[in-house]
Specification:
Aspartate Aminotransferase, domain 1, binds pyridoxal-5'-phosphate, Aspartate Aminotransferase, domain 2, about 400 residues, seven-stranded mixed beta sheet, three-stranded antiparallel beta sheet, globular, 13 helices, alpha/beta
């Protein structure tokens, strides 16, 4: 048991550097430095959704607590958005506003799982999910699938099923996936639901990129698949689609049996999300469709420039490209060291990227690049700097 001045060993399993950038291999990088290591956007949100648009004169108690479940106007906007997007009608008791999806997923894990429970976490994954699961006493079980989905003969459902043990309590499903941008097919999502049904598991759907699809048509949100619906708790956010990451507003919904304990736990986490930003989020959800169409068109162009410029596959959704750095660093670099080498070379040309290891133990040679965080001309300048490294090989 730690005593002053020591701290909890659990805190050592977490780090504020998961998105961390490497130091340049030599010398000072050129200016400006392009930080493509954190998943954010350069776009300003819809004017009506911004912090400065929420006025105390219009909202008495603007700076007071809001109800734990969430501001009624936001709860209505969420229910309407879900119905518009998926055709599913969500009743009030099934909804809970969260202080962003990071905190929201922590609340969900704490409410539904017990210490020692295992959570299947398909990898590569969003860098914070492993720590969230661990920090709340459960054990993340990494199953590499997203980078293999198009591999002939690879069966992701069999891979997931092979990782299930009597201690497995849940599967985390993030689609579109951070970092690969992969979108699971209807058949794959349906099969994950059936798998969860067979093994009596919760499904923790992470829907934060549901609106950032880059193909022709919106895929149905994962929770909306019939086999998932009754056992899925889906967590969403206004951070990604609406450019409101600093607002810290998200929401979860699921069966009432799950939402009651979730609401109880939320009361003890942050009590409520920031009221002014809940009001802003309500405006984004109800009035932001054309803002979102425009953002998606910009992101599609950004993704296409990275894919074309660096010779990578076009991501299907999300904000990232994720690639194996081995072919780009040359044979002399030891296995597991390719990402560190590539990151250092990228840092030397003033481009910061994320190490793949943050997305799972199997990705020590991989690198993540965010294409939504800087405007198009700057992104193109960053691509120009990275291009020689992609041809890199044995330099
Ligand atoms: C897959 C995934 N889930 C959840 C989150 C957290 O979102 P929020 O900003 O709402 O905490 C992120 C943020 O990067 C993410 O990529």
């Amino acid at each position: 048991m730690p005593r002053f001045p020591e701290h909890s060993p659990d805190a050592d399993s977490l780090s504020d550097r998961v998105f961390g950038a490497a130091a340049p291999s030599a010398g000072r990088p050129p200016e400006p430095v392009y930080r493509l290591n954190v998943g954010d956007t350069y776009l300003q949100p819809l004017p009506a959704a911004r912090a400065e648009a929420q006025l105390a004169a219009e909202h008495p108690q603007l700076h007071g607590y809001s109800p734990v479940q969430g501001e009624p106007v936001l709860l209505d906007a969420i229910a309407k958005k879900i119905e518009r997007r998926s055709g599913i009608r969500i009743e009030r008791p099934q909804l809970q506003v969260m202080s962003g999806a990071t905190s929201g997923l922590g609340v969900v894990v704490t409410a539904l799982l017990s210490p020692g429970d295992e959570v299947i976490v398909p990898s590569p994954f969003w860098p914070l999910i492993r720590g969230i699961v661990r920090f709340h006493g459960a054990l993340p079980v990494q199953v590499p699938i997203f980078h293999r989905l198009h591999e002939p003969g690879f069966d992701p459902i069999a891979a997931l099923e092979a990782a299930i043990t009597p201690r497995t309590a849940a599967i985390y499903v993030n689609c579109p996936n951070n970092p690969t941008g992969q979108i699971l097919s209807d058949a794959q999502l349906q099969a994950i639901g059936e798998l969860a049904e067979r093994h009596q598991l919760w499904v923790l759907c992470d829907e934060v990129y549901e609106d950032l699809w880059l193909g022709e048509q919106a895929p149905p949100p994962s929770f909306s698949h019939a086999a998932l619906r009754e056992r899925a708790v889906a967590t969403h956010s206004v951070s990604k689609a609406y450019g409101l990451a600093g607002a810290r507003v998200g929401y979860s919904h699921g069966p009432e049996a799950a939402m009651e304990p979730i609401r109880n736990v939320q009361t003890f986490f942050t009590y409520c999300a920031a009221r002014p930003m809940q009001l802003g989020a309500a405006r984004a959800l109800s009035e932001g469709d054309s803002w979102l169409d425009d953002a998606r068109a910009r992101y599609r162009k950004a993704a296409a420039s990275v894919a074309e410029g660096l010779g990578l596959p076009m991501p299907e959704g999300g904000s990232f490209c994720f690639f194996d750095a081995r072919p780009h660093v040359g044979k002399d670099v030891a296995a597991g060291g390719a990402a560190a080498e590539f990151l250092a070379r990228a840092a030397a040309v003033g481009v910061m990227l994320t190490p793949g290891l943050s997305s799972g133990e199997d990705f020590g040679d991989w690198v993540r690049l965010c294409f939504t965080c800087i405007p198009q001309p700057e992104l193109e300048a960053a691509i120009d700097r990275l291009q020689p490294l992609m041809r890199g090989g044995d330099r």
